[in-house]
Amino acid sequence: MNTNKIDMERIPRHIAIIMDGNGRWAAEQGKPRSFGHQAGVDTVRRITSECTRLGVKYLTLYTFSTENWNRPADEISALMGLVLSSLEDEIFMKNNVRFRVIGDVSRLPEDVQRKLRETEEHTAANKNMTMVVALSYSSRWEIAKAVRHIAKEAVAGNINVDDIDEETVSRELSTNFMPDPDLLIRTGGELRISNYLLWQIAYSELYFCDTYWPDFDKEDLHKAILSYQKRQRRYGRTEDQIENENKNQNE
Predict the structure, then answer these.
(1) Which residues participate directly in catalysis (predicted)?
(2) 198-231: pLDDT as tens digits
(3) Which one, 40, 87, 125, 216, has least CB within 10 Å?
């Protein structure tokens, strides 16, 4: 696909991705699931580089959900090993990418926690893009955690209950350092959100494709962005209102 078709003035500021299909991709080739996860890491490298080139400012990747702790122990161990090895990747410095992590990292092995902290510190000054990895993450866990903290603040008298609004909740979420996603992509053919950024994607554009994550390439990313750019983001307003606003801005 020719990237000239993409309007470089309307690149999504924040893209979130549910990277699905690693295991099925491996199974179709008669390989163990860990083989698919390794191939998925290679895709992360490619897509990160392309998002940086296009000017995306935030890329959030659903890497390991709290529900994934129910998977076989050997697969979890392999996934943790991949997390460690991928954090050694110089893709962050090569592309001037800042690394952040969201999720219940206290459940992760200590060596993984330590490497996550080190990578965040090592890349803190990078400016081109922020890559956010959702690790041991679920949206319901995140929202419940935020509600507990707001309740404690209200009981302590630090906040008036009547003053609690959407901004109050957003400030307490793990994602409070970045804007909500403009575009959510899910690979692998499934048509669900799987407990991912439920609060944050209230007005995100959704894009589903059948391509397994290891096969997802720059052309697939371009297709998703082109689909996003063909849509009119109304936020509850009518088409006429949007068109009049655009007309007034161009006058």
Answers:
(1) 20, 68 (proton acceptor)
(2) 999 999 999 999 999 999 999 999 999 999 999 9
(3) 125
- CATH 3.40.1180.10 residue window(s) in the chain: 14-137+180-232
Q: Catalytic residue at 68?
A: yes
21 neighbors 220 (Cβ within 8 angstroms): no
170 a known binding residue?
A: no
Q: Which of 2, 4, 7, 68 is catalytic?
A: 68
User: Residue range 233-248: average pLDDT?
Assistant: 61
The per-residue pLDDT for 85 is: 84
Residue 194 known to bind ligand: yes
Q: Which of 7, 20, 160, 180 is catalytic?
A: 20
* 166 belongs to an annotated ligand binding site: no
Buried b (16+ CB within 10 A) or exposed e, 14-37: bbbbbbbbbbebbeeeeeebbbbb
User: Token pair for residue 13?
Assistant: 């500021």
The DSSP code for 197 is S
Mean pLDDT for the stretch of residues 40-55: 95
Mean pLDDT, all residues of the chain: 92
* Tens-place pLDDT, residues 88-102: 777 899 999 999 999
Q: Are 227 and 6 spatial neighbours (Cβ–Cβ below 8 Å)? A: no
20 is an active site residue: yes
- Is there a binding annotation on residue 217? no
Side chain identity, residue 139: S
CA distances from 98 to 80, 142, 210, 217, 248 (A): 21, 22, 30, 22, 37
